[in-house]
Each structure stands twice: as structure tokens, then as C-alpha cells.
Amino acid sequence: MDRRLFNQLMALGAGALGVTTDGEELQAAEEAPVAGRATPFRGREQEPVNIAEVRSLAQRKMATATFEYVDTGSMDELTLRENIDAFQRIQLIPRLLHGVSNVDLSTTVLGQKIAMPIMLAPVAGQAMYHPNGGMAAARAAADAGTVYCMSSSVGNSVEEIASASKGPKWFQLYVPKDRGVTRQLVQRAEKAGFKALIMTVDLGEWKDADRRNKFALPKDMLVKHLRDTGFDQITDAMSYQEVLDFNSEAWDLSLDWKFFEWLRKVTDMPLIIKGVLRKDDAQMAIAVGVDGIVVSNHGGRRLDGMPATIDMLPGVVDVVRGSAEVYLDGGIRRGTDVLKAMARGARAVLIGRPYAWGLGAAGEAGVSVVLELLREEFENSMTSSGFAGVADIDKSLLL
Predict the structure, then answer these.
(1) Taking the chain (399 residues) in consecutive chunks of 10 residues, what is each chunk's mean pLDDT?
(2) Beta-carbon count within 10 A of 278 CB
(3) Strand ranges (E), 182-253
(4) Please, what is the angle between helix 353-385 and helix 335-343, to 10°?
């Protein structure tokens, strides 16, 4: 793979936040206040009733390269499809005569009460999907009473995201080689009120769509991101090539388990590791003292051919044995998927593509629609299964 293209793609995962492609302009939906699900969308025929329809709206409104950046997976997309197909293979056998009239969807994550066990995962490049980007998504999460996980490459500084809403927020860290910059960034996030630190550790990407679309990261967006991170030496006087060269050498992509020991000396925030599939990695995560584990294969965007996260979840839960909270990321498209993940032992789930589609379709209101659709479906699935509360869900529901 061409080194420059690789560095640009890595910048989207650990750096920059915008894309231009062969003169194609970025598109954004109009922002509209939410007053009922149909409000953000024009025409009754466009009112989405599920996540798939939100995706279709996003595809029509977003620039092709931008939509394909968030929508597609690595190589042959085996893992991307498997994440979804695995949920569909799981069958439910609800109990009879356990009717409930009121369902409580609330739970806690790291001691924080949230309205439902559905959180917004860290997603790169949200400024590409809508001008208000991560700030819009953070507000929608707060309105829904759940956690917004900020990506390092969202397109805003930690201070900008912190000021967007008073809802609970976690910060996902991609690590600069300069440990002074890393320390300051972590401490800035803590000072800004973020409640936890997420380390995404599954790196490496090869996406055909991104290569076909010939991504080129705009200089101004890359400069903003590097400055937001804390690289004060980046100036407007630098050429685009100089900025690209700096970015290609700025990030530490060869971390090991010892890095968590260093982090513990830098911050008191709870630490979460994202990208765990193997039991032995889960055991190592517990050994280094993490507070949370996200079972994830990066949504099928990284190494193709990995198993579905929902299939790997039970093994991780068994190994952890309550020593840390376990969350699931990847493949959530329906409220029944949330129910299945909870039945297999997840404390909560994180969604990525669904809310990115909502952001591209209608900004903040679109994200709110996605969260409300999943909330309503999850509530209906709990009612249909006879569960009055999230804590009641167990593997007896599964065939």
C-alpha cells in the first residue's frame, strides 16, 4: 500500500477528520429540532422506521466517498457482514405469562446511570458527515440520557465537545509519540469533565472503497486536528506536504501492555480497552487493571476475516468474571440485537455506523432519531420477553 495513503487513512483513525475526493463536495443535511421522529426529514415517504432506512437517507444526502468511508469494511467485508449475520442467527425463546406493564431500560456504566444500555461509540471524522459533527452527536446522546464516546479524530477539541453538552462523555485516545503531548491531552480531557478513557488497540486498515475514492485529507482539517491534539508547532505557514510528513510520524502505533501502567500514573479516570476478542487478551486486560472491556473488531474496518463480536462476547464475559464491565461493539442494527447482547452478558452496547448515518442524514436530529428507534425497539423486545428491567435479562432467553 502506498505509504502516503496509509498515513492518510491512519490519520482518519488517529488524526485528521475530513476528506475531499476529486472535486466532490461534502454534503450535510439541514439541522432541525426534534419534535417527533419525522421532524428532521422532508416528506412522509422519507420518515425512517428502522436503521436501514436511516442508512438509505444518509446515502442519498452524503457525498459518495464520505458515505463509503463510514459504511464500508475492510477488504472483502467478511467481518462487516459477519457482525450482522451472527445476530440474525441467534434465536430467542421468550417466557410465557411473564407480562410486564412498565419496562425500566436504565442501567449503570462505571457507576454512571444511563437511560438505556446503548451508548455512542467513538467514530472518526464526524465533521465530514455534518458541519456540527461531534458536538451535534454529543448533544443527542445527552438528550437521550446516554454516554457519548469522543473519538480522538472526531474533528473537535476535547474542550469543544465538553462545551456542547452536559451529558456523560468518555474520551478515546490515539497516542502521540510525544508523551508530553499525550499527558497533556489526557489531563485536558479529565479537566474538561470526561468520565473515562478508552484505548482502541486494534489498528491497521485496508478498505477498497477508500483506495478507489482516492482520499485526500484537506490541509486545514488536518492542521486543526493536530493543534486540537496539542501539537503547537504546527503553523499555517507549513506546506501541506510538511503537515502530512509531521502527521505520519506523530502517532505511536506500536503500544504494548506496559502503556496502561504509564496511563495509571497520568490519570485517575477509569480505563477502558476497546478491541478485545481473545480470552487471553481479556485476561491480560484484567491483569493490568482496566475498568472496562469493549469486545470489538472495529466494526469490520480493520483486519478482515475476524469472527463476529457477539460470538466472542460469552468467552470474554466468562474470563472476566465481573472483574471489569464488558461492553459490545459491532453489528447492532435492531433493538433485538441489544437484547441478545445483554442476554450474552454485555453490560451495554456501543453503536457506530447507525448514528453516523443519522448524523449524515439530519445532523443532531438524525442521531436522536437513531437512538429513539433503537430505544423503542429494545423496549418492545423486553416487553415481549417479559423482562421488567435490564438486570433481569439472562441467557435463558436464548435458544
Answers:
(1) 40 42 41 45 72 97 94 97 98 87 95 98 92 96 98 94 97 95 97 96 86 83 92 93 93 92 95 97 97 97 96 98 97 98 98 98 97 98 95 95
(2) 12
(3) 196-200
(4) 70
DSSP string, 43-66: SGGG--SSHHHHHHHHHHHS-HHH
Residue-number span of the structural domain to which 7 is assigned: 3-25+33-397
- Cα Rg of the chain, angstroms: 20
- Residues facing residue 273 across a β-bridge: 199, 293
What CATH number should be reported for the domain holding residue 343?
3.20.20.70
Q: What is the pTM of this model?
A: 0.91
Cross-strand partners of 390: none
The strand pairing partners of 326, in sequence order, are: 293
Classify the phi-psi angles of 58: left when phi > 0, otherwise alpha if psi is within -120 to 50, otherwise beta: alpha
DSSP 117-167: SEEEPP-TTHHHH-TTHHHHHHHHHHHHT--EEE-TTSSS-HHHHHHH-SS
Instruction: Give yes or no for a contact between 127 and 117, defined as CB atoms under 8 angstroms apart.
Output: no
**221: its cell numbers:** 482539517
Specify the number of domains making up the chain: 1
Grid cell listed for 161: 465537545
Strands (E), the chain: 107-109, 112-114, 118-120, 148-150, 169-173, 196-200, 271-276, 292-295, 325-329, 348-351
Active site residue 298: yes
| Contact indicator for 14, 152 with CB cutoff of 8 Å | yes
